[in-house]
Design brief:
Layout (H helix, E strand, L loop, with lengths): L6 H16 L3 H8 L3 E10 L5 E12 L5 E8 L4 H17 L5 E8 L7 H15 L8 E5 L5 H15 L20 H20 L7 E5 L3 H12 L3 E7 L2 E4 L6 H8 L13 E3 L1 H5 L5 E4 L18 E3 L8 H10 L2 E3 L1 H4 L2 H15 L5 H26 L3 H20 L4
Parallel strand pairs: 3-4, 3-5, 6-7, 6-10, 10-11, 11-12
Antiparallel strand pairs: 1-2, 2-4, 7-8, 8-9
Helix pairs in contact: 1-3, 1-14, 3-14, 4-5, 6-7, 6-12, 6-13, 12-13, 13-14
This protein binds nicotinamide-adenine-dinucleotide.
Length: 417
């Protein structure tokens, strides 16, 4: 997934950019640039044909100064420990920008889930979680879904840990099915947060979202929900894609119909015929007002940033724009709403789910959505004002806020012993 771009280097470069504004001392900068715990596990699974296959997985906790660590689990063939560390670091800043009491973590397994049966997926999940269980806990480290994982996988994680401790522990993982202690609104939360920040950012650049043309890369949980809710907010979705490729229709695509037919199924969107087929790289360069990269990292780079035509980029994915792309986009006047702000809706509602699980008291969906919207709007407002104060781009502004909150917590706690 990292290809030519080292995602961990990218995350460290972003931290260094923000550190300059904060006057961080070298030791503290080093603390913040380094994960506190990294576990690499290799474990066997007996496959359906009776053969044993060995998988490799990771769990990285980046920083726990502000609370238990929180971060998704990704199943993808290209993951590695460096990318997982970068994603864990971004989780730390994301939780701090949203001002929720969590540190950051991430887990992953190198696997192509398309090659596994449902039973193999379940066995692999249960064994992976058993291997990393020393790090997990409702008060220590709480996973959630990411690429390649979903509510069913979270249910298996909850069940596995519950079997090991001898009682049900719903708060050890979020993004669970509602009937197992999941939260109303969690499935749509990241996409909903993306659209709330899109609406705020449209005001910043004076764009009327009503009728604005939007292109979305990735038609999974985040991309498909963002497309659907952006359409409900009045935008016209002109391009969408999944891992196999995309479709484009300047007059607009019937997103609700596409959502019901293809959401989460790779190759699905290309089956829709009343549109022009485009590659994923062509999709990013389509004429539009708003671009939502909601798939994988490093999609907008120094190589293609000058060809991006959107005025506004809202990062549904983690790390879709590289630092080189950021500089080019900033020079062109394109506003980039960074991942640690734009896609924080998922972890915010994960926080609500965790709180509900610990209290065993559950909220209605409109309560979840209105609390989410309030946090997303106030986080956006703080970042926008930091952007003006520091005269910088929005990513650096968000990092200044997030990194400062984590640095302050670290200083106040002191360095043990
Ligand atoms: N799920 C969440 O709550 C959440 C929260 C915050 C951030 N994110 C980030 O959002 C992104 C998407 O996550 P998701 O949960 O929607 O995953 P998902 O597995 O539900 O969907 C991923 C989508 O991306 C597509 N895709 C994969 N590789 C691609 C490629 N090379 N080019 C174009 N499309 C490709 C897939 O076909 C699929 O449509 C990830 O970067 C993830 O880290 C997710």
């Amino acid at each position: 997934m990292s290809q030519h771009i080292n995602i961990l280097e990218m995350a460290r470069r972003q931290l260094a950019d923000a550190a300059q504004y904060l006057d961080l001392d070298r030791g503290l900068h080093q603390v913040l640039a380094t994960p506190i715990r990294t576990l690499i596990v290799r474990f066997p699974v007996v496959m359906d044909n009776g053969e044993v296959q060995v998988f490799e997985g990771y769990r990285v906790q980046h920083n726990a100064s502000r609370g238990p660590t929180k971060g998704g689990i990704r199943y993808h063939p290209d993951v590695d420990v460096e990318e997982t560390s970068a994603l864990a670091m971004w989780m730390t800043w994301k939780c701090a920008v949203a001002n929720i009491p969590f540190g950051g973590a991430k887990g992953s397994v190198k696997v192509d889930t398309k090659l596994l049966s449902k039973r193999e997926l379940e066995k692999m999940t249960r064994r992976y979680v058993t291997e990393i269980n020393t790090m997990l806990g409702e008060r220590s480290d709480i996973p959630a879904p990411d690429i390649g994982t979903n509510a069913q996988v979270m249910a298996w994680i909850m069940d596995t840990i519950s079997m090991q401790v001898g009682h049900t522990v719903p708060g050890v993982v979020t993004g669970k099915p509602i009937e197992l202690g999941g939260s109303e609104g969690r499935v749509e939360a990241t996409g909903r947060g993306v659209v709330v920040t899109m609406e705020e950012a449209a005001k910043t650049i004076g764009l009327n979202l009503n009728g604005a043309k939007v292109v979305v890369q990735g038609f999974g949980n985040v991309g498909a929900t963002a497309a659907k809710l952006a359409e409900e907010a009045g935008a016209t979705i002109v391009g969408i894609s999944d891992a196999i490729g995309g479709i484009y229709n300047p007059k607009g695509l019937p997103v609700h119909e596409l959502f019901n037919r293809y959401q989460g199924r790779d190759g699905g969107v290309r089956e829709y015929k009343d549109a022009q087929a485009v590659s994923n790289s062509e999709l990013l360069e389509l004429p539009c007002d708003v671009l939502v990269p909601a798939a994988i990292a490093a999609q907008i780079t120094g190589d293609n940033a000058d060809r991006i035509r959107a005025k506004l980029i809202v990062e549904g994915a983690n790390g879709p724009c590289t630092p080189d792309a950021d500089h080019i986009l900033s020079d062109k006047g394109t506003l980039v709403v960074p991942d640690i702000l734009a896609n924080a809706g998922g972890v915010v509602v994960s926080y609500f789910e965790w709180v509900q699980d610990l209290q065993n008291f559950f909220w209605e969906e409109n309560e979840v959505n209105s609390k989410l919207t309030r946090i997303m709007r106030s986080s956006y407002a703080s970042v926008e004002s930091a952007m003006k104060v520091h005269k910088t781009d929005m990513r650096t502004a968000a990092l200044i806020i997030g990194v400062k909150r984590v640095a302050d917590a670290t200083i106040k706690r002191g360095i043990f012993p």
